[in-house]
């Protein structure tokens, strides 16, 4: 397994986030090389775990500026990219237009609140979004309902950490225990749930934990 170590140029600020400030952070999101490297590493890990095809219709959930979606664009037939942040989606729409990416379409969507869209997918992927979403059980049930007869869910996110990743005041999940997330995914209807480590983030200025592994969970419907 290749181990990726990234030293944040913007240590302490790189992923310090509440969901409310994603709009204002959208314009500079892609300027952080660590985020781009993370997306490329997770895309590579997905390619090794799931047989991708240009016949597939995919959804990226919590897409931000679509770094992961763009990394997988040529592997897939069509990608819908969903997020709750208007700022992120505005930047992503500009990127899609500039790249003439005719197989990518954005959606403003919160699956923990909104009703399900009518489209069904062969693949759903998500990177660093789950830890910002309180009701993971509802999210997993909604994602399960969005698949066609069979498909793969790929979730890349933080392993359980001591809270230093975002620091004081963060109200989301301090990463996820793999066994617990597996149990929740199975309860939502998924099967063949497995984990690998796709990436590592290093924060040298952290008062606590400095190494933050990023898992890739693959689950099947
Ligand atoms: C840390 S950013 C990750 C963005 C992108 N996936 C990346 O890794 O570069 C988390 C993203 O999740 C989005 N988000 C937060 N809560 C959400 C929800 N309930 N549904 C969909 N997206 C959500 C935020 O707007 C933000 O774009």
What features would you describe in this structure?
The chain has one domain: Rossmann fold. Helix content is 27%, strand content 27%. The longest helix has 17 residues, at 33-49. The protein is globular, with a radius of gyration of 16 Å. The chain has an eight-stranded mixed β-sheet. The chain has helices at residues 22-25, 33-49, 67-71, 86-98, 136-145, 178-187; strands spanning 5-7, 57-61, 78-83, 104-108, 121-127, 147-158, 191-202, 211-220. The protein is built from six helices and eight strands. By secondary structure, it is an alpha/beta fold. The structure holds S-adenosylmethionine. S-adenosylmethionine binds next to helix 3.
* SSE ordering: EHHEHEHEEHEHEE
* CATH architectural type: 3-Layer(aba) Sandwich
The tally of strands reads 8
* Quaternary organisation of the protein chains: single chain
Q: What's the total helix number?
A: 6
Task: Report the sheet with the most strands, covering strand number, pairing sense and barrel closure.
Answer: 8 strands, mixed
């Amino acid at each position: 397994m290749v181990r990726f170590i990234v030293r944040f140029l913007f240590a302490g600020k790189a992923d310090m986030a509440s969901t409310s400030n994603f709009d204002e952070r959208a314009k500079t999101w892609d300027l952080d090389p660590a985020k781009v490297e993370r997306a490329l590493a997770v895309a590579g890990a997905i390619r090794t775990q799931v047989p991708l095809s240009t016949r597939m219709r995919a959804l990226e959930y919590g897409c931000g500026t679509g770094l992961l979606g763009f990394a997988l664009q040529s592997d897939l037939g069509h990608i819908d990219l969903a997020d709750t942040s208007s700022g992120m989606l505005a930047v992503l729409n500009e990127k899609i237009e500039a790249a003439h990416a005719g197989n990518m379409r954005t959606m403003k969507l919160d699956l923990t609140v909104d009703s399900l869209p009518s489209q069904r997918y062969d693949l759903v992927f998500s990177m660093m979004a789950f830890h910002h979403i309180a009701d993971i059980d509802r999210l997993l049930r909604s994602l399960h309902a969005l698949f066609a007869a069979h498909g793969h869910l790929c979730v890349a996110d933080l392993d359980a950490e001591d809270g230093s990743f975002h620091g004081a005041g963060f109200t989301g999940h301090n990463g996820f225990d793999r066994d617990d997330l597996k149990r929740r995914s199975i309860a939502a209807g998924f099967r063949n749930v497995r984990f690998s480590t796709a990436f590592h983030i290093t924060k040298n200025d952290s008062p606590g934990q400095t190494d933050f592994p990023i898992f890739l969970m693959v689950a099947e419907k």
